[in-house]
Design goal:
6-stranded mixed beta sheet; 2 domains; 6-stranded antiparallel beta sheet; Rossmann fold; globular; alpha+beta
Length: about 325
């Protein structure tokens, strides 16, 4: 039935009434705090916060203080050991940050659990019918249960369009019910859905993540893989694709790498709990590194600047994942 459905001409595809993801003009990848802007941003809860001078834990209610009169680039980093387990307890002095190959002075540092705004994209197209969709629904519901009360979440159903079936202001119970009600429908516009969901997240402050449950097969998008990658580079969201099937599409793996997320291939339902636990641990324990670019960003310029985050000293087996750069505009 799925094969016959996908053979139908594009103009004859049936669409259910839906609320599609709102498209907004994208901003650049890493949040830049404006030239003459003074602010104090609370990040709760975290285990250690450095002030602009020393970067040492305060031992009190943690607050990341951003300097006035500068541009600030913020990047989240995840550190794991050889077994893939999250490494905690590192200090500002343990990190090096490079922009376009030039070492930067880290002026803002925080570690621990940061409030999160996450979008769950569930592929409910015909190619996911049966066991894949059942697993995707089970996985997305389980992930909702892993979130903290301070976190915000939304659910997007992916088919021939991206339908917000549970917005950010809905309860977790309502979101879980919306997921349970999903049944197979239409073809797959995965590329368009990823771009649309990132656009929707763009207006949200703080840390963002997109978790995608899909077989990765795109059959209906107008956007190309290159356009999806370009949009992800302009976003602040970490992308965690979970692929169902025998292979993990190259695009999903690339999106994870360039945003500092991680991709997974789920072949067996028994792997589901471990996969979700891994993502939850990573999102709970991250490091926030902030710096004012040594080469100031001129207003009106549009250029790509690479970011590389590494660890100092002999730390055998430890790996750092972080966004690979940002686009100024």
């Amino acid at each position: 039935m799925a094969q016959l459905y996908h053979a139908v001409a594009r103009e004859r595809l049936l669409k259910r009434p839906s609320r599609t993801v709102v498209t907004r003009a994208p901003r650049f990848a890493i949040r830049l705090i404006g030239l003459v802007l003074a602010l104090t941003a609370a990040v709760l809860p975290v285990n250690a916060v450095g002030d602009a001078a020393g970067g040492h834990p305060t031992g009190q209610e943690p607050v990341a203080r951003f300097s006035s009169g500068v541009q600030l680039v913020e990047v989240y980093a995840t550190v794991v050991d050889a077994a893939g387990e999250v490494v905690t307890g590192l200090r500002k002095e343990d990190f090096d940050v490079f922009e376009d190959g030039r070492r930067q002075e880290v002026t803002t540092f925080a570690s621990g659990e940061f409030p999160l705004t996450v979008a769950l994209g569930v592929d409910r197209s015909w190619s996911m019918a049966g066991e894949p969709l059942r697993l995707a629904k089970q996985a997305s519901q389980a992930f909702l249960r892993e979130l903290k009360p301070v976190d915000r979440s939304m659910v997007v159903a992916i088919s021939s369009d991206a339908q917000v079936i549970a917005p950010l202001d809905s309860s977790r119970a309502a979101q879980s019910q919306a997921i349970a009600a999903l049944d197979p429908w239409s073809t797959t516009a995965l590329h368009d859905a990823i771009i649309g969901t990132l656009n929707h997240l763009e207006a949200e402050a703080g840390r963002q993540a997109l978790v995608v449950f899909s077989d990765g097969a795109d059959r209906y998008s107008t956007a190309t893989p290159a356009e999806v990658i370009a949009r992800a580079r302009r976003s602040t969201a970490l992308i965690y694709p979970i692929a169902f099937g025998r292979t993990r599409p190259a695009l999903l793996a690339e999106l994870a790498v360039l945003t500092g997320g991680r991709s997974f291939l789920l072949r067996d339902a028994r792997e589901l709990e471990k996969t979700l636990a891994t993502i939850a641990r990573e999102l709970r324990h991250q490091y926030l590194l902030g710096y004012a670019p040594a080469e100031a960003i001129a207003r009106g310029t549009r250029e790509w600047r690479s970011i590389a985050v590494s660890l100092r000293g002999a730390r055998s087996g430890l790996r750092v994942r972080a966004r690979d750069g940002y686009l100024t505009e």
